[in-house]
Known about the structure:
The protein is an alpha/beta fold. The protein is 32% helix and 22% strand. The chain has helices at residues 5-13, 24-35, 105-121, 142-151, 200-219, 269-290, 314-323, 337-342, 367-385; strands at 41-45, 52-58, 66-71, 90-92, 95-97, 127-132, 159-162, 171-174, 176-185, 236-238, 242-244, 254-263, 295-304, 329-331, 346-349, 364-366.
Amino acid sequence: MPLTARDLMDRLVAFPTVSRDSNLDLIDFVENYLDGFGVASVRVPNEDGTKAALYAHIGPEIDGGVVLSGHTDVVPVDGQAWDTDPFTVTEKNGKYFGRGTCDMKGFDALALSAVPLALERGLKRPLQIALSYDEEVGCVGAPPMIDHMVAHGMPRADTVLVGEPSMMKVVTGHKGGMGFEMHFQGFEVHSSIAYQGVSAIMMAAKLIDWANQVNAENAQTTPNDLAAPFDPPYTTLHIGQISGGTAHNITAKDCHFGFDFRVVPGDDIAAWQARFDAKIAELDAEMKAVRPEAGITATQYFGLPGLVPETAGSAEELARRLTGDNSNNVVSYGTEAGQFQERGYSAVVCGPGDIAQAHQPNEFITVDQFQQGEAFIAKLVDTLAS
């Protein structure tokens, strides 16, 4: 007997696929699940083989199908106060609690539940399932998967539905972004003669202050037409974690932090990169003028294109037809939808659950939203079969 969507969510949530760890046990399960229906799947491993994306094709070997896209990784539960086991789905008060129920193993389960429905109905247009890794650290697992799909003979779909939580609203645009691991390397001396050394922390503070100034400037600008619907309607710069220093009376030798941009559609990511590079070069030169050994290293760990609303896009048309939603929606978080779109696919975001629950302790998806997701999948299969 095929597993229900709820059964599949139970199984997927039980795999603790936090981004810092492997997702291969989950991929093994999905591969075996698909194999049980005679559906072949393709793995796309990361460089060291500790993680993998997976994609599969169901239906006729023709172009023009629909991709259901999701990610398999989740954020950590460390330090969060959970009332239930985060890796066991618990139903309570009309909600399914568990890490990933909302973001986004609930949707992954719904996508996999479409397989037996599709085989039973018989499809005239194909259904494809694409599950990536490391979405939570910058959507880094999706691009090699998409490129592999294109390069290795997978029939070309014309529509991508990314199931990030949107309350089943059709999201046609999202911000892009880029993120950097920053290392300021100073030169240690006693703080009484600080002018002879370079404080990595105090120099890093200049970059952080620059970010605050730029955010304030951006908040005062008139948004472009593509940016206007966003909250906030401008590009933002952010530093979320920082560490460094040796002692209170020594100039800091090292300072490490993450620096990221969330770029609205209509802004040029390359222009923001150039502006960032120029500021780094200015501060690096200031440090080296005191001690040549000092300097700055900025290592990019993700770059994500925005999702731009399409004119007469097939993904938007299909998603609106399946949901009945005609509202205009954009989001400030990023997804692989922009990466699919960058490679020529029509893409939207549409999935069950509320993004406000993502990454939270006691993360949940309501039973009603999950059921709406089931109805959405059933309608999609009917459409592909008709």
